[in-house]
């Protein structure tokens, strides 16, 4: 019970999380608490386990040990170790909105229907209610002119903005961003980052994996550095980027030529 | 009276054979489509003890000459106490046989389906049934459209086999006229025209459906 109480205020609460792929330990006893309204950025070199950590949060990867609570609800397994039935899992998953590196829009649906699909068919909203919400969200991400377009006609940046609106339409307790700009042409990165920045200003709770250091510094409340599945450093962005505690992070930041201020 | 005039006088027989062929074809491809989708659904994320027998069934059907299956259902089933009339056995055989082909076409396409889209659906709280019917199946059908069109033509041609189990369809009409008046060439040329007409109409419909999927970028892949 005490565990449930501590997670009550947290949007995401991760305890003792471990995960291996075959013999390789990708996450080792990870602890992370994301408060409502907080933006947490996960940084690390490739293979450090940061995407796996993010994907464990909505159970796209099943951790081997540990627990994850989303808005106070445990995901994936019950406290007595029983695996969660699929319907129940789907309900908890719907509390998270995920934005993928590769957009993963549904190509047979137009922009509007990509955004209304889950609210109508997962959450049971009425068509009208879902479309009103979608219209507002597409406006927020600057895509209101494209309701009737199909994903194959959009640029990468536009696709990603639609994907953000689609995730927001679930009205999730937390938004998960898995390298949202890594698949974009450099000149399209800005438009997506601008949208995410607006969301952080509006108080959305977000967990983000990114390689955009200046951006991480500008929007984060907490920065976490993963190395071989271990969190070796966590701090507010100012401290993290100006006075890192470990040599590993110092070296990483040097290689990423971080601008002195964002 | 020329041979063609004889056939013109007997046009009612062709017409009823044509309607019968259309009916058999329509019902059996609808059945085949449902069976194909059902098999794909059962193969989707199921356990091995279900998928292995299903795969054996599908492959078994595909390796069987259609005529043998029609014979089995019509002449073989009565020996185990199930008696189907020729029409029922014919439609049933066509539906099951081509349903397995549909399933195989769908399954092949399913293997190349981008996993990211499925993850996105799971992350948005979709469960298996909704994910299948709302996201997977529509895309798989759009993508396999040309193959499905091809399979429909095979199914149409297989309806002609049913003459052998005494179904009164188009080929049966030609057969009977050709032997009554001994004018095989003309009689069979007429039915070829009918089969071509159905095939061409089907091609046009399938092509029109292609515009629907092309708009969504499915025909560029």
UniProtKB/TrEMBL annotation, chain A:
<protein>
    <submittedName>
        <fullName>Amino acid ABC transporter ATP-binding protein</fullName>
    </submittedName>
</protein>
<keyword id="KW-0067">ATP-binding</keyword>
<dbReference type="GO" id="GO:0005524">
    <property type="term" value="F:ATP binding"/>
</dbReference>
<dbReference type="InterPro" id="IPR030679">
    <property type="entry name" value="ABC_ATPase_HisP-typ"/>
</dbReference>
<dbReference type="InterPro" id="IPR003439">
    <property type="entry name" value="ABC_transporter-like_ATP-bd"/>
</dbReference>
<dbReference type="InterPro" id="IPR027417">
    <property type="entry name" value="P-loop_NTPase"/>
</dbReference>
<feature type="domain" description="ABC transporter">
    <location>
        <begin position="12"/>
        <end position="253"/>
    </location>
</feature>
<dbReference type="InterPro" id="IPR017871">
    <property type="entry name" value="ABC_transporter-like_CS"/>
</dbReference>
<keyword id="KW-0813">Transport</keyword>
<keyword id="KW-0472">Membrane</keyword>
<keyword id="KW-0029">Amino-acid transport</keyword>
<keyword id="KW-1003">Cell membrane</keyword>
<dbReference type="InterPro" id="IPR050086">
    <property type="entry name" value="MetN_ABC_transporter-like"/>
</dbReference>
<keyword id="KW-0547">Nucleotide-binding</keyword>
<dbReference type="InterPro" id="IPR003593">
    <property type="entry name" value="AAA+_ATPase"/>
</dbReference>
<comment type="similarity">
    <text>Belongs to the ABC transporter superfamily.</text>
</comment>
<dbReference type="Pfam" id="PF00005">
    <property type="entry name" value="ABC_tran"/>
</dbReference>
């Amino acid at each position: 019970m005490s565990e449930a109480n501590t997670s009550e205020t947290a949007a995401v609460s991760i305890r003792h999380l471990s995960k291996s792929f075959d013999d390789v330990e990708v996450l080792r006893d990870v602890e992370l608490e994301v408060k409502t309204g907080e933006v947490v950025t996960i940084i690390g070199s490739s293979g450090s386990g940061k995407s796996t950590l993010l994907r464990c949060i909505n159970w796209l990867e099943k951790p081997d040990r540990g627990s994850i609570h989303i808005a106070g609800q445990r995901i994936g397994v019950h406290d007595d170790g029983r695996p969660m039935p699929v319907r129940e899992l789907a309900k908890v998953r719907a509390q998270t909105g995920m934005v993928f590196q590769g957009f993963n829009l549904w190509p047979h649906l137009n922009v509007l229907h990509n955004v209304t699909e889950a609210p109508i068919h997962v959450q049971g909203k009425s068509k009208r209610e879902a479309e009103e919400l979608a219209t507002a969200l597409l406006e927020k991400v600057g895509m209101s002119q494209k309701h009737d377009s199909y994903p194959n006609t959009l640029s990468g940046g536009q696709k990603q903005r639609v994907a953000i609106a689609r995730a927001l339409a679930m009205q999730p307790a937390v938004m998960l961003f898995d390298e949202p700009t890594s698949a974009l042409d450099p000149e399209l990165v800005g438009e997506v980052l601008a949208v995410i920045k607006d969301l952080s200003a509006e108080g959305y709770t977000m967990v983000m994996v990114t390689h955009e250091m200046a951006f991480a510094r500008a929007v984060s409340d907490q920065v976490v550095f993963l190395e071989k599945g271990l969190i070796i450093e966590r701090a507010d962005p100012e401290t993290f980027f100006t006075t890192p505690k470990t040599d590993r992070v110092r070296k990483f930041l040097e290689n990423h030529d971080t601008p002195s201020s964002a | 009276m020329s041979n063609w005039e004889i056939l013109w006088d007997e046009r009612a027989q062709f017409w009823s054979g044509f309607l019968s062929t259309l009916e058999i074809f329509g019902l059996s491809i609808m059945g085949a489509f449902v069976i194909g989708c059902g098999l794909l659904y059962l193969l989707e994320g199921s356990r091995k003890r279900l998928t292995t027998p299903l795969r054996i069934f599908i492959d078994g059907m595909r390796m069987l000459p259609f005529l043998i299956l029609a014979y089995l259902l019509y002449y073989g089933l009565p020996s185990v106490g199930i008696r189907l009339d020729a029409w029922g056995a014919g439609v049933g055989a066509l539906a099951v046989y081509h349903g397995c082909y549909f399933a195989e076409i769908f399954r092949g396409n399913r293997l190349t389906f981008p996993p990211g889209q499925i993850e996105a659906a799971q992350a948005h709280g979709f469960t298996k049934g909704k994910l299948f019917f709302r996201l997977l199946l529509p895309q798989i059908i759009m993508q396999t459209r040309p193959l499905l069109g091809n399979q429909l033509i095979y199914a149409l041609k297989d309806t002609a086999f049913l003459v052998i189990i005494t179904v009164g369809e188009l080929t049966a009409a030609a057969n009977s006229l050709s032997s009554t008046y001994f004018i095989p060439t003309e009689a069979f040329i007429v039915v070829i025209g009918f089969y071509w007409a159905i095939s061409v109409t089907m091609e046009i419909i399938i092509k029109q459906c292609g515009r629907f999927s092309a708009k969504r970028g499915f025909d560029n892949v």
